[in-house]
Design brief:
This protein is mainly α and 231 residues long. 69% of the residues lie in helices and 0% in strands.
């Protein structure tokens, strides 16, 4: 019986693939594409690329060592999380981490060029430590240990170590991983209800779209009806 290769984690694989392509493009263009699209820094709010960079900076990396360090963590933890929670949650936490890290850099370090997916990696580290938390009033011991070891170290290094590492991005990523992880693992929390409601709406709407409008309803009308049902 032949074995076939499957894409078990489309979002994580896409992040890794885009990051690799971005690094190659940067080397080919002498970092022109990296500075223009795949790193974030304070720039005019009227510049549309400012908003592109707020998200796309997670794909930019300084060199192969920077890339491999981040991708090793993301490729180890990401597929497990994507399989457990689904692709949508991975997209949510990735986008949210990218935007918040960019805003923090924009506000507090205007002269610093930020790139890399380390914030996303730290969100996955903390999120993976609380995947078994199903009781509303419990805090997993693994979560406490991870916060002390990883986030605590980042706070100390950020305060007392001068280097080229964005410790603030690691802290933001870890914080988001903890908040979203605790919320999504509690069935009655607002975070959990919000994600499940959105997922159900999108999934139901997608199934309807596959019917290619057999009922004759207009695209906007069908979406409006489905949203009202969820309310």
């Amino acid at each position: 019986m032949k074995r076939k290769i499957i894409n078990n984690s489309p979002v994580i694989i896409s992040i890794a693939a885009i990051s690799c392509i971005t690094l190659i493009l940067g080397k080919v263009t002498n970092d022109v594409t990296t500075v223009l699209l795949f790193s974030t820094y304070r720039s005019s709010l009227l510049d549309p690329f400012t908003y592109v960079r707020m998200i796309c900076h997670i794909f930019g990396h300084a060199d192969i060592n920077h890339l491999s360090g981040n991708m090793m963590l993301i490729l180890l933890l990401g597929p497990l999380l994507e399989e457990k929670y689904g692709s949508k949650l991975i997209i949510y936490i990735t986008l949210l981490t990218a935007i918040l890290c960019s805003l923090a850099n924009f506000i507090f370090f205007p002269e610093t060029l930020l790139m890399g997916a380390s914030g996303v990696a730290f969100s996955f580290i903390v999120l993976s430590s609380i995947t078994s938390n199903r009781e509303g009033n419990s805090i997993p011991l693994t979560f406490i240990i991870v916060v002390i070891l990883f986030i605590g170290k980042e706070i100390i290094d950020g305060l007392f170590t001068a280097d080229n590492i964005s410790h603030l991005s690691h802290i933001i990523g870890g914080f988001l991983g903890g908040v979203i992880g605790n919320g999504i693992n509690r069935p009655h929390s607002k975070i959990s209800k919000g994600f499940h409601k959105f997922d159900k709406t999108v999934d139901s709407f997608t199934k309807q779209e596959k019917l290619k409008g057999e009922n004759g309803d207009d695209f906007t009308e069908r979406f409006y009806k489905e949203t009202k049902k969820e309310k």
